[in-house]
């Protein structure tokens, strides 16, 4: 059985090492074989492969394309497939850290096809003292306050490892001070930084990622949703045509028409919402 602990204990076994290296290079295989994700959309494979191939990945994404679903499973893949690694995640608020991203991490951990091991709590997962993932809240870093009487000491400092992954979920809302602090974690080799968000503001460090050559950039629009594709709405011209069609109807006709759209993935962005 391939678990995080077995990687540590079986590092000299050729078959285990070969399989780990395969999963490190092809995370989609890990998602399927270890996490039990049977269906990945093309754009989801694009995102997870980009994280395997690039040091910095910025994902500009519309509503409901599975942002936190992907980030949670990327965190699990990275942590379990890189011995003695660290994963640091954050979001604009602690509620988003605990209730969204780490809720997805806990769900994926419990549904995995194998025992992933370690001790998993609400916002931390420890495999060994030097091998862990943490969900941190940036609120004290921005305000200068402290929950535990620790003053202004940064909770984002000191997390260096041979393999390190930093994830910014809902990155548009993360303050500049936190981006600056996290840069201090990225000075060595084998570190990765992933930032994903709905691009709601140009006045953010997240927007700056798309103006920098340092970042591999991915753009996910509503047209990536399989629900829109299933209804033949694959570009802005087709969307505008559909909107005009609905506008030409009376209320009763429009209401009936909106109910007829195909929904192939209920948990992703729907045609009805976009129209």
Major sheet: order of its strands?
Answer: 3-4-5-2-6-7-1-8
Q: Helical content, roughly?
A: 40-55%
Large-scale geometry: globular
Tell me the Rg in angstroms. 20 Å
| Distance between the ends | 47 Å
Q: What kind of sheet is the major sheet?
A: 8 strands, mixed
The secondary-structure class comes to alpha/beta
pLDDT < 50 stretches: 140-153
- What's the tally of helices? 13
Following the backbone from N to C, one meets helices and strands in this order, namely: HHHHEHEHEEEHEHEHEHHHH
The pLDDT mean sits at 88
Strand content: 15-25%
What brief labels describe this structure?
275 residues; alpha/beta; eight-stranded mixed beta sheet; 13 helices; 8 strands; globular
Topology of this protein?
Blueprint: H1 4-9, H2 14-25, H3 27-33, H4 42-53, E1 56-61, H5 67-81, E2 86-90, H6 94-111, E3 119-120, E4 124-128, E5 131-136, H7 139-143, E6 164-169, H8 176-183, E7 191-197, H9 205-209, E8 216-220, H10 226-230, H11 236-247, H12 251-258, H13 271-274
Helix pairs in contact: 2-3, 5-6
């Amino acid at each position: 059985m391939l678990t995080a602990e077995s990687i540590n204990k079986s590092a000299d076994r050729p078959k285990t090492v070969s399989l780990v290296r395969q999963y490190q290079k092809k995370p989609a295989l890990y998602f399927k074989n270890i996490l039990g994700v049977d269906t990945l959309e093309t754009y989801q494979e694009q995102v997870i492969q980009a994280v395997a191939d690039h040091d910095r990945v910025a994902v500009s994404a519309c509503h409901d394309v599975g942002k936190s679903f992907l980030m949670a499973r990327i965190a699990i893949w990275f942590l379990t497939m890189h011995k003695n690694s660290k994963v640091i995640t954050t979001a604009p608020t602690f509620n988003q850290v605990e209730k969204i991203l780490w809720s997805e991490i806990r769900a994926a951990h419990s549904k995995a096809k194998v025992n992933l091991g370690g001790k998993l709590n609400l916002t931390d997962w420890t495999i060994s003292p030097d091998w862990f993932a943490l969900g941190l809240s940036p609120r004290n870093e921005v305000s200068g306050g402290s929950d535990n009487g620790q003053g202004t000491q940064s909770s984002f400092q000191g997390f260096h490892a041979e393999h390190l992954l930093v994830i910014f979920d809902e990155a548009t809302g993360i303050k500049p001070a936190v981006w600056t602090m996290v840069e201090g974690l990225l000075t060595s080799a084998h570190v990765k930084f992933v930032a994903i968000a709905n691009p709601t503001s140009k006045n953010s460090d997240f927007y700056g990622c798309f103006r920098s050559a340092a970042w591999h950039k991915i753009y996910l629009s509503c047209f990536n949703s399989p629900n829109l594709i299933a209804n033949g709405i694959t570009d802005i011209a087709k969307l505008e045509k559909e909107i005009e069609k609905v506008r030409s109807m009376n209320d009763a006709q429009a209401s009936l028409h909106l109910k007829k759209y195909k929904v192939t993935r209920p948990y992703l962005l729907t045609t009805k919402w976009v129209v």
